[in-house]
Amino acid sequence: MKRTAAALALIITAQPVWAYTPDRAEMMIGAVRMNECAMAAPEAADLLVPLGLDGDEVQLFVDILYSAGLLTISDDGQELTLAHDLCAADTEATHRMVASAFAVAESAIELEEWRPEFTTEQGATLIGAVRGNGCVLADANAQALLEPLGFEPIVVRDIVTILVETEQATVSNDGLTLSLGDALCAGDPGDDPATIEALLAAWTEMYPPAEGME
Fold first, then answer.
1. Which strand ranges, in their side-by-side order, compose the sheet holding 177-180?
2. What 3 state SS string does the chain have?
3. Could you list the pLDDT tens digit for every one of the 214 residues in the chain?
4. Disulfide check for 135: which of 54, 55, 102, 180 has CB 3.0–4.6 Å away?
5. Torsional sign, CA 109, 84, 92, 23
6. Whole-model pTM above 0.85?
């Protein structure tokens, strides 16, 4: 198998706890699909960093998808191309393909299970900050808005992941803007801690800890 870690390494400001999940692999696929189903090494940072995808995480996804025949890599290791079926697949078909690839890979690759690491207070504070900013968090103003509140990138990414995966927020197609859903946007700030607890419980039900990881 060709290795592309060097070619696809991403530059980020923090080392997150890798979220090695099929959902995040689908985020990567979506970004590549929007780029005409191919990604060259110089394009990787612009396409994937805004989504919070790290180089090591991307490398694992590339290895899994390559092994499943869902993408190809150029001879010089500088470009990857989605297979025709994956390029043309709709959301449901993409989910099936990726889930199947991960199921096969689990027998050969030990995946580090990702769990969100933030407090209820941190989650509620971030929701409040975004709500106070018109319910939108853009890449251009994220640092100015969140840094004074003591947020580190890893914590922001964890909270955003939970909000998006529980369908309480959406990310723009270019990956640069987070928008709260209508209910969360109009919510009572006093209810935010309970909302975060409920969302974490719902996410844990969707992705229960592996045996021995509780």
1. 136-138, 177-180, 169-171
2. CCCCHHHHCCCCCCCCCCCCCHHHHHHHHHHHHHCCCEEEHHHHHHHHHHHCCCHHHHHHHHHHHHHCCCEEECCCCCEEEECHHHHHCCHHHHHHHHHHHHHHHCCCCCCCCCCCCCCHHHHHHHHHHHHCCCCEEEHHHHHHHHHHHCCCHHHHHHHHHHHHHCCCEEECCCCCEEEECHHHHCCCHHHHHHHHHHHHHHHHHHCCCCCCCC
3. 332 222 222 222 223 333 468 888 999 999 999 999 999 988 988 888 888 887 778 888 998 999 999 999 988 778 999 999 999 999 999 999 999 998 888 765 555 567 888 999 999 999 999 999 999 988 778 888 888 999 887 788 889 889 988 999 988 766 678 899 999 999 999 999 999 999 999 999 988 876 654 5
4. 180
5. positive
6. no
User: Which tokens is 87 given?
Assistant: 């390029």
Tokens 């999940």 — which residue? 21
